[in-house]
Design brief:
This protein is α/β, with parallel strands linked by helices. It has 6 helices and 5 strands. A 5-stranded mixed sheet has the order 3-2-1-4-5, sandwiched between helices. A hairpin with a 5-residue loop joins β2 and β3. α2 runs parallel beside α4.
């Protein structure tokens, strides 16, 4: 199979080593951890939305299940937008033990840190310049860029929001993950209907 992939010019996936738990800086193993990161993209229509070509998206991942819980797409994201996205998740799924992120201005803002402390979670910032400490999120970002952002032209912010949400749904419910035994992290539930005729 690899020979055919190479002949067709396709990228051959590298074999991934087994991963253990990600550890906190003080040596404790992480429990219920949400990963959060911000990426940027572009829209190309300067006619429909002049001078507003860039957008940012906040990705929130469950480190244990590998599920992408939310992607918030806006022209500009700040700590208030991050709090808003996390509030929705905490109401639906409960409060995690830790929130892991890099040291971006959105994540180290006092408003966000105070809010996280007030709801009973803790921050787990990675060391500056050490993206490998947030490996799950970096891996997700690479897949999202390869499978979606590099291959799509977004003509408006609304189009980007719809297409990215559709991809997130596919990533969670259909796309196989090698770390999960080639199953999706949150497969859609199906109900088996008995088609046999009822005997009276």
């Amino acid at each position: 199979v690899e020979r055919l992939w190479r002949r067709e010019g396709l990228k051959v996936p590298m074999k991934q080593p087994k991963k253990g738990r990600i550890w906190m800086n003080d040596g404790r193993a992480s429990g219920c951890v949400l990963n959060i990161k911000i990426m940027s993209g572009r829209t190309t229509s300067y006619i429909i939305e002049p001078m507003m070509a860039g957008f940012q998206d906040t990705e929130i991942l469950d480190e244990y299940s590998r599920e992408c819980l939310a992607i918030r797409v806006k022209r500009k994201l700040n700590s208030i937008e991050v709090i808003d996205a996390l509030t929705d998740l905490f109401i639906l799924r409960g409060i995690p033990a830790y929130i892991r992120s890099d040291n971006g201005p959105e994540f180290i803002a006092e408003a966000l840190r105070d809010w996280i402390r007030a709801v009973g979670a803790k921050t787990a910032y990675i060391e500056p310049g050490s993206p490998w400490e947030n490996g799950y999120c970096e891996s997700f970002n690479g897949r999202m860029r390869d499978e979606l952002l590099n291959g799509e032209i977004f003509y408006s912010l609304r189009e980007a929001q719809i297409i990215i949400e559709r991809w997130r749904n596919h990533y969670n419910t259909k796309r196989p993950h090698s770390a999960l035994g080639y199953r999706p992290p949150a497969p859609e539930a199906t109900i088996q209907v008995d088609q046999r005729p009822v005997m009276h």
